[in-house]
Specification:
The chain is an all-alpha fold. It has 15 helices and no strands.
């Protein structure tokens, strides 16, 4: 009885905190995709706090099933939120909504019909394996994108948010799978509720320690010219930036495979943190990939506008400029110029 009371109290406190967080995020950053997804993720987490039940074996009621479905669909929101948080050029596509709808619908069907037909344990395992898959995608996104963030405080907080949410989600899914139909349900549910409350509190505190405008930037800061920037700083900083720009313009290091900020720091003979600060604070970039892509796109624009290269395929121009495939090139090109590479070439081919 005592454990059940503690469990209910922890769930209530967690739901209240998540609802306040969702409202605050939407009011403060509702115009930004990452902010909207963060608010949606908080609402989905509230649904999870209400419905999460480790070791459940009884059938789900018709009133309960939609809330469980929304809670399950939240793993898709988590994945999309992670992408928006780390990829400042990320945009929602129609198929993202389709994926969310498919996962949510599968969870609802699972609760209402598949579980009674095939057994609750099999249904729980299926849903939680699906959740682990999306958590894996989110963690992979974090690992792949973390180093490109040039704002140090934001970089740390983003990792705390994603790591804490992924750790809880992964452990919850593993507990659901391993304890389904087993004993110790009351203790497991109380510990799970306590862990969720701690994670939500930790994420809220972490978000309060960084400027919200840094965490959810309203727009990418695009420079007018990749080789020109208003540089203010010491003479030593100016020399380093001049050397960095020579690496970009003369050596075209942005063409190299898997070039990283560590690669450039080694070339310049300075610590990585100092180069991050220079590119962020002196050149005004918040993301290393945006810095690289502007140089790549500048080269691609020149090639696409060159009448002598009119027969060169767009994919060849993209690869020569340092892109690994056509999709990222097209997205980066349109984000900077507002048109696709093919449209840009067509516009430049028109007689004046």
């Amino acid at each position: 009885m005592l454990l059940s009371t503690i469990d209910i109290a922890l769930r209530g406190a967690t739901v209240a905190l998540l609802l306040v967080l969702a409202v605050s995020l939407y009011r403060g950053f509702g115009t930004v995709l990452a902010g909207r997804l963060a608010a949606a993720f908080a609402l989905g987490a509230a649904a999870h706090a209400v419905t999460s039940s480790i070791g459940a074996t009884s059938p789900v009621s018709a009133a309960h099933a939609p809330v469980i479905a929304l809670s399950t669909g939240n793993v898709v929101v988590f994945w999309l939120f992670t992408r928006a948080l780390f990829e400042e050029t990320f945009k929602l596509r129609w198929w993202h909504a389709l994926v969310w709808a498919a996962v949510t619908a599968f969870s609802f069907v699972n609760c209402m019909w598949l579980a009674p037909a095939s057994g609750v344990r099999a249904a729980i395992i299926a849903i939680n394996l699906l959740a682990l898959g999306f958590i894996g995608l989110a963690v992979g996104q974090t690992i792949a994108s973390w180093s490109s963030d040039l704002v140090e405080s934001r970089r740390r907080v983003r990792v705390v948010i994603v790591s804490a949410a992924a750790l809880y989600g992964g452990l919850n899914a593993m507990l659901q799978i391993s304890l389904s139909g087993g004993g110790g349900v009351e203790i497991a549910n109380t510990l799970n509720s306590a862990a969720l409350a701690v994670v939500v509190a930790a994420i809220s505190i972490a978000m309060m320690r960084v400027d919200g405008a840094d965490l959810f930037p309203a727009a990418i800061e695009i420079q007018a010219d990749a080789g020109e920037a208003a540089v203010v700083g010491s003479g030593a900083d100016q020399k380093l930036i001049d050397a960095l720009m020579r690496l970009m313009s003369d050596e075209r290091i942005y063409r190299h495979d898997n070039v990283t900020i560590g690669t450039l720091a080694t070339k310049l003979g300075i610590p990585e943190y100092r180069l991050r600060r220079l590119i962020n604070q002196r050149l005004g970039y918040r993301n290393f990939n945006v810095f690289l892509n502007e140089h790549r796109i500048a080269e691609a624009k020149a090639a696409l506008a060159d009448p002598n290269q009119v027969e060169v395929p767009v994919i060849t121009i993209a690869m020569d400029a340092g892109f690994q495939s056509l999709g990222p090139f097209n997205r980066a090109f349109k984000a900077i110029t507002g048109v696709t590479p093919t449209e840009y070439r067509r516009l430049k081919a028109r007689p004046a």
